[in-house]
Structure formats: C-alpha cells, structure tokens
Specification:
CATH superfamily: VSR Endonuclease
Shape: globular
Largest sheet: 4 strands, mixed
Distance between the termini: 46 Å
CATH class: Alpha Beta
Strand order of the largest sheet: 1-2-3-4
CATH architecture: 3-Layer(aba) Sandwich
Number of helices: 6
Strand content: 5-15%
Number of strands: 4
Length: 138
Amino acid sequence: MVDTISAERRSWNMSRIRGRNTGPEVRLRSLLHRAGLRFRIHVKDLAGKPDIVLPRYRTAIFVHGCFWHRHEGCRNCTTPSTRPEFWQEKFAGTVARDSRNEIRLREEGWTVLTVWECELERDADAVVARIRDSLREA
C-alpha cells in the first residue's frame, strides 16, 4: 500500500503523536477512578515512568498502543511498507525497553500490568476487572 500523503506531511503527523495522556490512558484512569482506585501518573522515579501507579498495592500499569509496542496477533500491529528496516529497528528498541523496565520494576518488588489499547476498546469493564483481581492478589 502506497502512502497517500507527502513525506513532509507524514513526518508532521508522526511528530504529533503523544507519549503521555493518550486517549486510552485517560480512559483507563477515568475507569479506575470511578472504581474507587486512587493512583499517581507518570512517576518519574520508577523505571519506565509507568502510566498509572497504585502505590498502596505496589502496582505499576503501562497502557500500550498496539502499533508502537507491538501487540502480537493484534490487527493494529502493522509495519509500514516504506522503510521497513527503520521501523523494525525502532519497534525492536521499544519492545526491548519495555522488557527492561518491566524486569527492573519486578526486581524492585512491583507488580507490573500491561493494558493494551485494543483490550480497552474491546471490553473496558473486563480490563478493570482484571486489574482489580490482580490488586486482590497483591
């Protein structure tokens, strides 16, 4: 599939993609707050600056976009056809960084949960239930 916009416009579009306070992240925060859970966001002194931190439960939650963080088997996990080597290297770096951060947090005694963008779209209530179950275990 050929890109239908210019390289300059594509670059501009890509530069506007946010890393914090994304739609899925804000939605999950709202759902957790409604469920009575209190949290902190983007805690800088934890590995990877988790999107949501529940200090009371020593639980860190990352809200990952399927495209950027390579959610295996997901329809949103595509690779652009232009410059595929560049993208594969970029994605591999992201996945490796995610893994390092998760390992480090677990070594520090944190429970780490990952919520995928598509999970939240498909069944947000199930995501909240999974988080609550995990907190009960912690």
